Amino acid sequence: MTSDDSSTRSFIERQGGRVIVIDAATSDVLLLRGVDPADRERGDFWITPGGGIDEGEDVHEATVRELWEEVGLRVDATELGPVVLHRVGEFPFGGELVRQTESYFALVTERFKPRTQLTTPFEAEVVQGVRWRSLLEIDSSAEPVYPTCLVELVSELLAKGPLEEPWTEEQRLV
Q1: Domain that holds residue 123
Q2: Which tens digits make up the pLDDT trace of 54-98?
Q3: How many domains does the chain have?
Q4: Most CB atoms within 10 A, among 42, 51, 94, 110?
Q5: Distance in angstroms (rounded) separating the CA atoms of residues 105 and 19
């Protein structure tokens, strides 16, 4: 399929915020193992904490809320820093086609024990686990990891510090 094919499909449009949580001592990244409850045959995938922006929220508020709900970490919106990645993903999920435009932030912190505070039964069906994973483990994973540029982006952030401009990524699975 060419990129033009997706323009004729009907997508649910979502805006989202995500956080790349990095262990300050080991450079491990905190990831959620997820599954599409409507298509378990597709298998598991790994994503960073985050999700959709609710009505009345801005991207910082949504990202802070999602970080608390999904991994139990409370932060102030100012701790998120600048956006490090703008990503547009098109994918099937929950029996629908979704186009999600996401802003990613990076947060270097001390390792903590994640604990979910999931607020809906649907979230509890999607999130199958939370785990710290090394960059090598992520890079060699047989299961999909999103964003696909995660290892390269984290490596650059750790080597060079803050980015002058955010990275961009597009991913189409439909």
Answers
A1: 9-172
A2: 999 999 999 999 999 999 999 999 999 999 999 999 998 888 999
A3: 1
A4: 51
A5: 5
